[in-house]
Amino acid sequence: MNQRTDYDGAWKVALEHYLQPLLDFCFPDVAANINWHKPIEFLDKELQALTRNSKLGKQRVDNAIEFRKQLVEYEQEKTMPYVTSIERLGRKEGLQEGMQKGRRSGLLEGRLEALRADIVEVLEVRFSSVPKELNAKVNGIADEQELRRLHRKAVLAPSIEEFEREI
């Protein structure tokens, strides 16, 4: 009696019937990238052809599963288009230009905030309080030169009412 015991045949049948739940459970990232609406092809016949001349007698070879078509489609969807050297250079220069504009804009906004705060502080030191409406008007000004002019006026104005007329 030289009959081999088929230990893994049941597993192979189970794999054919429960492949999706198995991959969902064990390899969720892989399962998420498989289009389960397309048929899955088991390549056991192809593997059997490779081992047909085996001296071991009847054997069921390991199953191979065909995901190749789906993988190619997935890779094509995720593949970035070819970008020429000139396009890369243009993108790099555009990125650098955008970063410089952003820095300049941030620096300007910082200067404007500082000037607004300085004006309100000078008015508070000189006149002990600043009405909310006046504070809102000062904080609404976005012109650097106008804020510089108002800063000088805040230092020199004889009264808060006189300063308010300058706005």
Strand content: under 5%
What share of residues is helical?
A: 55-70%
User: How many helices in DSSP terms?
Assistant: 8
State the major sheet. 2 strands, antiparallel
Gap between N and C termini, in Å? 108 Å
Assembly type: single chain
- What is the helix/strand order? HHEHEHHHHH
Structural class: mainly alpha
Coarse shape: elongated
**Domains, number:** 2
What value does the Rg take, in angstroms? 38 Å
**Low-confidence runs of at least 5 consecutive residues:** 57-61
- The residue-averaged pLDDT reads 81
Per DSSP E runs of 2 or more residues, the count of β-strands stands at 2
How does this model look, in words?
This protein is mainly α. It folds into 2 domains: 9-78, no CATH class; 107-166. It has 8 helices and 2 strands, in the order H-H-E-H-E-H-H-H-H-H. The chain has helices at 9-26, 28-32, 44-50, 68-78, 85-127, 132-139, 144-156, 160-166, and strands at residues 41-42, 65-66. It has a two-stranded antiparallel ribbon with strand order 1-2. Helix 5 runs parallel beside helix 7 (144-156). The model is unreliable at 57-61 (pLDDT under 50).
